[in-house]
Specification:
Catalytic activity: hydrogencarbonate + NH4(+) + 2 ATP = carbamoyl phosphate + 2 ADP + phosphate + 2 H(+)
Largest sheet: 4 strands, antiparallel
Organism: Eurytemora affinis (Copepod)
GO molecular function: aspartate carbamoyltransferase activity; ATP binding; carbamoyl-phosphate synthase (ammonia) activity; carbamoyl-phosphate synthase (glutamine-hydrolyzing) activity; dihydroorotase activity; metal ion binding
Keywords: ATP-binding, Ligase, Metal-binding, Nucleotide-binding
Strand order of the largest sheet: 5-8-6-7
Strand content: 15-25%
Shape: globular
Pfam family, one: CPSase_L_D1
Distance between the termini: 18 Å
Radius of gyration: 20 Å
Helix content: 40-55%
Amino acid sequence: SGTQAIKALKEEGIDTIVINPNIATVQTSKGLANKCYLLPVTPEFVEQVIKAERPDGILLTFGGQTALNCGVVMNKAGTFEKYGVKILGTPIKSIIESEDRKLFAEKIAEIGEQVAPSMIVENIEEALQAAEMLGYPVLARAAYALGGLGSGFAENPTELKNLAKTSFAHSTQVIIDKSLKGWKEVEYEVVRDAYDNCIT
């Protein structure tokens, strides 16, 4: 997605700067971005690049979980405001609301959509209690990890204990969902531009 974003920005005549520590990714290839920094995506390094390059805007949604987390931290610290950098694409508020499982469930409920019965837990004991209330099998998902780190299905308390240990290694908050295994999933996406052109 990062490569496609660079190509789209290039078509619009916008100069791009990429920060990526992985030299093997396509988006770091010569001739794509105008400048490429092979640095860790951490608030300290990203701020140094912003200070040196003075970009007008930043796209956080093309760097996976690392960029999302980094962007949230930098926004909270006021770094983007300090350098007059506009957050392009998905707003920080939406990133936080989609990553905090409790906030996300509340937002879904607000628009009247149904979600699988679930509970937010903060330790293994709470996870086991939640699973008993919801009934096995359950799905355990770490919050603040859209990439699915530490997520999986548990058929019984032993499996859930092991899974919860992994989930809590990635996050302080874990959501326990009633499993929807066997249901048919239909994915529906709409892409809309500034002129209200839509592709479904």
